[in-house]
Amino acid sequence: FLALAAASGLTTACGTAPPEPDPAPPVDVGTPLRVPPLLHPDPGPDGVRHYELTLQAGETEILPGKQTPTWGFNGPFLGPTLRAARGDRVRMSIRNTLGEASTVHWHGLRLPAAMDGGPHRPVDPGAEWTPEWEIDQPAATAWYHPHPHGKTSLHLYHGLAGVFVIDDGPDAGLPSEYGVDDVPLILQDKMFAEDGSFSGDPLKGPFGILGDHVLVNGVYDPGFAVLTERVRFRVLNASNARMYTLELSDRRHFQVVGNDRGLLGTPAEVDQVPLTPGERVEIVVAFTPGEQVVLRTVDNGLDIGKGDFDLLRLVTASELRPTPAPGEQIVPFTAITPAADARVRHFTLNARDSINGRTMDMARIDEVVPTGAVEIWEVENSASSHNFHIHEVSFQILDVAGTPPPAHSAGYKDTVFVPTRSTVRLAVQFGRYADPGAPYMYHCHLLRHEDAGMMGQFVIVEPGTEDTVSRTLLLAH
Ligand code: C2O
Ligand code: CU
């Protein structure tokens, strides 16, 4: 039968149809990596791209033979990759079929505060919310996740997270074929009970969850078939608290080409890159035919970065499609430069539940910022492990404990690791959407700390009106 099949194949190839190139050789990768489906709807007659996202509960086989109760968008676990370009008008129809209220926050998106999906925008079970805005920011790997007051850690731990890719005109030929040489990797660490359900309390102990299984796109111990000479990975840390130190198992060098909020001007060559919760990094890895190498994380000695874990086995085909190397200049890059008299604000991260000695209060506005401002935010970590995320803005790290950042983290960001007992200074670029009644958040993105109240609120207002803004919000309920 095999001989017959081969013979008939030969006959076809010699017949009238032109010979087809050999299909890519099959690559055995073990459990295959799941690549989240792409959601990129065409613009409707009104010119708006209309995305539909349903929060739902389901079950996923993560460990062999066991069903894990999970939550996802448009599926049982995690969410599709949303794609939009600068200048697009987008409308999101958010439907919640869970048994409890949630929210959807666009982490890394520049948009009006009313569309931001923070704790002030709960979507009740059975309800729908349809934010709409125009994409107006450089190409980046952003993401989306719930942000319900005090419950973000639980909703993320159940699996509500997805990647949001922003395109913006040409770059220097970075790999861009989705799922082939441009691949999102969502990292989440989990603990499992005997019956396969997620265990551990995201609100307990100093950090909540520090799991002993790391999933990539919801898959445990996955492999990926590499078919091209270079692959760009958009890595998102969607973990509750774990910090990763990414490297390749043979310690080969790779290139960092993007940070949270955009592409770097020039690729930065590294052999390791750190990633704390909420951060994203875009990397380009070069491969040779017929090899296997593992993307892994190694123990960095910190309480949130303990342990070595293999993340993704990369198995290359015996022939690889050529991919050009990233150019010397990826995109033109403009630094965020505060004026000499720029406003400086100081934030101290205390213990695990407050900033500047205050715990999050939904009714309190902590900071008022004029539109378009470029400010210096100094974030001091007085204890424990923390990072710091600011909604809406894009920032650059000026220095960490007085030292300028390495090239691989010198780009546009929105989340930054703040080492214990040190200060990080940020040059922060605010947007132009003014709304004195709708706050944005800033907080530690270790979700146990965020939920405990290590969070504050700011509003962006018309310049000159700062002193007239009420510091007390009338809450809807
Ligand atoms: Cu990723 Cu305020 O969140
Ligand atoms: Cu923290």
UniProtKB/TrEMBL annotation:
Known EC number: 1.16.3.4
Keywords of the record: Metal-binding, Oxidoreductase, Signal
Record GO terms (molecular function): copper ion binding; oxidoreductase activity
Keyword Metal-binding: yes
Region (Disordered): 12-34
Residue ranges of domain Plastocyanin-like in the record: 56-169, 345-461
CDD domains: CuRO_1_CueO_FtsP (cd04232), CuRO_3_CueO_FtsP (cd13890)
Catalytic activity: 4 Cu(+) + O2 + 4 H(+) = 4 Cu(2+) + 2 H2O
Presence of keyword Translocase: no
Source organism, top-level taxon: Bacteria
Binding partners and assembly: Monomer.
Similarity field: Belongs to the multicopper oxidase family.
Listed name of the protein: Multicopper oxidase CueO
